[in-house]
Amino acid sequence: MNKITIISGSHRKGSESLKMSKVLQARLEAHSSCDKAEIIDLAEVNLPFWSESYSDSEQALIDKVGAQLEASDGFVVVSPEWHGMVTSALKNLFLLFTSKQFAHKPGLIVAVSAGVGGAYPINELRTSSYKNSRLCYLPEHLIVRHVGSIFNGKEDDDKKTEAYIDKRATACVGMLLAYADALKTAREMMPDMSEFPNGM
Ligand SMILES: Cc1cc2nc3c(=O)[nH]c(=O)nc-3n(C[C@H](O)[C@H](O)[C@H](O)COP(=O)(O)O)c2cc1C
């Protein structure tokens, strides 16, 4: 059984990324290999920017989120496309937390766009957030385009697109949980990398 953490990368309150995070959460919780799926909404969890020192309250929040990530068997990283980028809050999360929390655990990337965007966050995360964290992104991802037209529970939602994204999301969740099971064994078999704490 797996515990999955969903990171909703938008720091806009009530974001579409959070809406999609809740859809993914429901699909995860319906799966027999998942016993818990929790959302970290970066619009609500106000992590401080990475710094060389923190106030006591900032440190307490960092420790709390760090412990939650460390206890996870896998991750869903949901990012809106903002000016062709992932959000600064999400990049900051990958500065604050690294291999202790993420190493050799699977990650499903979900990109969210109000229009036809969504490719850039996939590219950015695959390029720049795994080197030192050693987070293993799945060879599959989800791009949710025209996100405003689906999963609103309204009559005029685009039901055809919603059904298609739902089907793909359910398949992605199954893949994430299969890797979460398999990578537990991989973590037990890892060579000692203490001489190389960071990726090359
Ligand atoms: C600052 C900003 C920049 C944005 N830039 C893009 C963009 O480059 N491409 C795109 O497809 N959508 C862009 N959008 C629209 C988002 O796709 C839209 O807000 C969508 O709902 C996902 O963001 P959310 O999770 O914050 O709701 C931008 C939105 C904001 C607030």
Automatic annotation (TrEMBL):
Span of domain NADPH-dependent FMN reductase-like: 3-141
Pfam families: FMN_red
Source superkingdom: Bacteria
GO cellular component, one term: cytosol
Keyword Flavoprotein: yes
Record's keyword terms, sorted: Flavoprotein, FMN
Single GO MF descriptor: oxidoreductase activity
Protein name stated in the entry: Flavoprotein
Organism: Planctobacterium marinum
Source lineage: Bacteria, Pseudomonadati, Pseudomonadota, Gammaproteobacteria, Alteromonadales
